[in-house]
Inverse folding.
């Protein structure tokens, strides 16, 4: 007997009873390979050390009074205990090697192992930012070639590689805009940044951080930003607009060229949030659309998932209007063919650079992975990756259109399909319930409740690397959940997830009253 995935299954007569299995208690609390894993503090003892250290000879401390005032109180474990602990934790974690991520293009997508091998090559993995430039010519060549590809793909004349994430890139772009405005003598008058209501939350935060006033561009029923709305906000006080394209509703902005032209005519700059560049690589060059600055998430568009906190990289491409204000460092080829880093702002080709954004040069490992991805795909391959991402998203959208509701009608999307919760009305089931039930089905949930302009949003991004087989299984699971919700099987959802290591948490309380420190329990009397 075969399952729907083509694997042998246990005949129904011999299938284990799920209810009895759930009721069966074990002495350890473990259930075969589903093992309970306590905290390190609960396993080890802080009263002994995991290694043998000799008492140090007399010495003079050089920490300037910053020595630890008390023991660090870390638990001691043997090497096998340490290994088992972290392996068991890894087995409880959902990863791209475990299954499909419905929020893939934005956060988790397949990272070819070739990229990892390249990033671990000697000279890349162990390079140090303070090495003499003569000893890092290969690393600088990678940066130079990566820059060439980014400029080719975007149609822009300059790129700053140093930002370490998308929000960091936003900061760089607006700092360059602020420097350009100051150079024109308008630093005190142009202090407004226009931000669509559907933008990423980091957009208004970045603008506010730099002292700009934020004005919202209203969201219309079709999910796009309209020229009339932007034009009505333009004036001598507008410094820039921050527009995502494709936008967070999964749609390409149809009036982006006209919006850019109107902004430029009013003396402003166009910052494009490049988080969704994955949908248009090889198809559209942002420079041709009138963009002045755009960050590119190397860790989204060119593999290397950044789920779990990093690392990331957010290079920013700049137009001719902003290129002179790009920060240092940047790579320059000398007359002798040797590559060098321009490190000082205010000198030579960096005469108008606004300064330095970060201590060193960015994330070398991310540069290598991204360049490896680009070189292994080539121009045609990168274009096909974009086309496949868009195709996969539209396949999901069309396959669920008869059961789920879409806020912007039955129109093609880019690399992400967006649904709202109108189809759940009067079912007693919420968007969050659907997400939790997906965990029981073996999937990481999709992005939920974003963008904020869509009520109960479910944003599904399948990525270009998912096969039709994996998409069909996800679609079938979503259809089964949708039909269960519509027929009133509320109990299936409100108690989910049932099969995860932990049941549903009080997420509101966890966000408002986080417990960030483990406290040793009092001894039992």
């Amino acid at each position: 007997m075969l399952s729907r995935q083509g694997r042998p299954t246990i005949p129904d007569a011999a299938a284990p009873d799920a209810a009895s299995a759930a009721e069966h208690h074990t002495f350890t609390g473990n259930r075969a390979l589903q093992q309970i894993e306590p905290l390190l503090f609960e396993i080890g003892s802080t009263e002994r050390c995991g290694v043998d250290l000799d008492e140090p000879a007399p010495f003079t401390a050089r920490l300037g009074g910053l020595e630890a005032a008390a023991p660090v109180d870390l638990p001691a474990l043997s090497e096998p205990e340490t290994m088992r602990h972290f392996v068991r934790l890894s087995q409880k974690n959902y990863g791209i090697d475990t299954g499909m991520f419905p929020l893939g293009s934005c956060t988790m997508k397949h990272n070819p192992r070739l990229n990892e091998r390249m990033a671990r090559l000697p000279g890349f993995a162990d390079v140090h930012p303070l090495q003499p430039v003569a000893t890092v010519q290969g690393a600088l060549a990678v940066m130079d070639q990566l820059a060439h590809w980014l400029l080719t793909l975007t149609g822009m004349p300059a790129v700053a590689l140093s930002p370490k994430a998308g929000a960091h890139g936003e900061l760089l772009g607006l700092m360059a805009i602020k420097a350009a405005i100051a150079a024109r003598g308008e630093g005190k008058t142009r202090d407004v940044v226009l931000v669509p209501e559907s933008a990423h939350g980091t957009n208004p935060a970045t603008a506010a951080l730099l002292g700009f006033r934020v004005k919202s561009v209203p969201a219309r029923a079709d999910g796009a930003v309209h020229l009339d709305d932007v034009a009505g906000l333009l004036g001598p006080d507008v410094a820039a607009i921050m527009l995502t394209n494709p936008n967070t509703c999964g749609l390409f902005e149809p009036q982006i060229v006209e919006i850019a032209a109107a902004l430029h005519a009013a003396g402003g700059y166009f910052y494009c949030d490049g988080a969704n560049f994955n949908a248009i690589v090889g198809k559209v060059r942002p420079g041709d659309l009138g963009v002045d600055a755009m960050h590119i998430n190397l860790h989204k568009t060119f593999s290397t998932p950044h789920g779990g906190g990093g690392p990331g990289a957010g290079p920013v491409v700049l137009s001719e209007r902003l290129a002179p204000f790009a920060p240092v460092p940047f790579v320059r080829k000398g007359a002798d063919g040797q590559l060098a880093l321009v490190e000082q702002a205010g000198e030579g080709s960096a005469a108008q650079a606004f300064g330095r954004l970060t201590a060193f040069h960015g994330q070398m490992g991310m540069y290598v992975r991204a360049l490896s991805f680009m070189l292994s795909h080539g121009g045609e391959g990168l274009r096909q990756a974009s086309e496949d991402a868009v195709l996969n998203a539209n396949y999901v959208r069309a396959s669920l259109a008869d059961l789920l509701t879409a806020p912007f009608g039955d129109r093609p999307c880019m690399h992400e399909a967006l649904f709202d919760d109108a189809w759940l009305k009067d079912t007693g089931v919420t968007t969050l319930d659907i997400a939790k039930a997906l965990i029981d089905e073996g999937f990481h949930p999709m992005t939920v409740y974003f963008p904020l302009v869509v009520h109960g949003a479910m944003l599904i991004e399948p990525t270009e690397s998912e096969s039709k087989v994996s998409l069909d299984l996800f679609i079938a699971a979503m259809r089964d959940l949708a039909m269960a919700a519509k027929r009133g099987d509320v109990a299936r959802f409100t108690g989910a997830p049932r099969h995860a290591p932990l049941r549903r948490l009080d997420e509101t309380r966890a966000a408002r009253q986080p417990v960030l420190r483990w406290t040793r329990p009092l001894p039992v009397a």
